[in-house]
Sequence to fold (327 residues):
Amino acid sequence: MSVLKINGKDKSFEEDSMPATLTDLLRLMKVDSATVVAELDGQIIERANFATTPLKDGQTIELVRFAPGG
Amino acid sequence: MDQLIIADRKFDSRLLIGTGKFASSKIMAQAIEASGSQIVTVALRRVDITNQNDDMLSAIDRSKYLLLPNTSGARTADEAVRLSRLARAATGINWVKLEVTPDPYYLLPDPIETLKAAEILVKDGFVVLPYINADPILSKKLQDAGTATVMPLASPIGSNQGLKTRAALEIIIEQATVPVVVDAGLGLPSHAAEAMELGADAVLVNTAIATAADPVKMAEAFKLAVEAGRIAYLSGAAAESKKASASSPLTGFLRNE
Fold:
């Protein structure tokens, strides 16, 4: 069992369903990656690098996008 | 109307629009269009993983409008810097509306943390538009630190109270070497016109448009008010006096004296 902390909440994955990269994770969660920026253990990951950024057990991920605001 | 220039970028409109509080993304997009605005502010928030339709801002045509991300929610300089860097990664451009508001009741900006964040962000290559209280000394310190504008508030965010800080705004405008954008608290087109008549370079409006009964018409009203105020400022206001001064000739009356 692997655990990722995504936007403040722990999410568990069986070994065979653990997403390999950020792109895989977004696909799994059905989030459109075109408008998303990620922070992995405090480091910003550019969208262009989502597919080549491997995920490991215990990592903290923030997924953000623009929202209405003044 | 003459162009607004911020950090060497030219804009035909002097009205900046916020995207918060609109009833739908369709009304938001129509209101932005009606406002004539070219700069549109947005916030940065966690993706709602449980809602696949939370991307309200896909309605904004990014080829027509400059998306200006804000750092709303930041309570410290460090949080604002983190949000700015995430926003840069999201937009691909380095403009940011810096706001640090630790007080949730009045949402007044923290001057010390704002200046601290501005210094870090300017060094990091950002075009920084800081939201501040109407403080002339802070305005000078920020422009000396290299911010692209100063954005003093008219009254608390979303309060629609109008220009409660008028006297301080006049000093800021007099002393500024960067564009002054009056932000927050403008509730009516007349408030926006008043700020522009004082010599503000631009205004930012959100709540007054988004929560009007007809946001699209209200956006147009603000557009016209900003243009009227700007033209009036450039025209040089006539002098005010206590006494009446007749507009019609005081000779040739039809009476015998």
